[in-house]
Give the backbone structure.
Amino acid sequence: MTGANGELLRVTGLHAFYGESHILHGVDFSVRTGECVTLLGRNGSGRTTTLKAILGLVDRRTGSVTVNGRETIATPTHRIVHLGVGYCPEERGIFASLSAEENLTLPPVVRTGGMSLEEIYALFPNLAERRRSQGSRLSGGEQQMLALARILRTGARLLLLDEITEGLAPVIVQGLGKAVRTLRERGYTLVLVEQNFRFVAPLADRHYLVERGRIVDAVERKDLEARQESLHHFLGV
């Protein structure tokens, strides 16, 4: 089941708190099945907290988050994951003592339709070559590929990706861009938090601009060229 108008995710009036700190102040946005959207903004604007709040990984949240038309604001994180939501956090969380393949197969499969190891290795050939290497011996780029690959096995179809290009060499960023395009072609739905505007500009259907815990604007792909200057000013680049 998909929500109204083909929506896979709708966030309405979302507030989020860490202790006494009120971080999100009524975030509103939606993502249709098969779309790729970004949350753009400066550090501290609330983009990562938005991803975490969608999954319930904050101290407290209010408002509405629907996945596949189902309200999840009171649903625990592990049940939201079973609705087909995968989260790739900025800190990656690779186990240093386990091999790349052991890291890859560690998370449980929560839904049918996840990628097989063969499909994942075809998408990320570097990981196939490094499958027996310990997590501690992987480069930053290989660790990032592994963190993304890990959620593809689980059966997730809505992918929340947090700063997947940060600190990586251009050749690795290029490889990640190719992987994101392939995932889109396969019908995955993606929400990207990203500082690297050059990376996301050709990939996204729509860019949501986040400032002080709110969505302050949305830029469609067709309007991107006309809005370049104001976007660069907004992002401080």
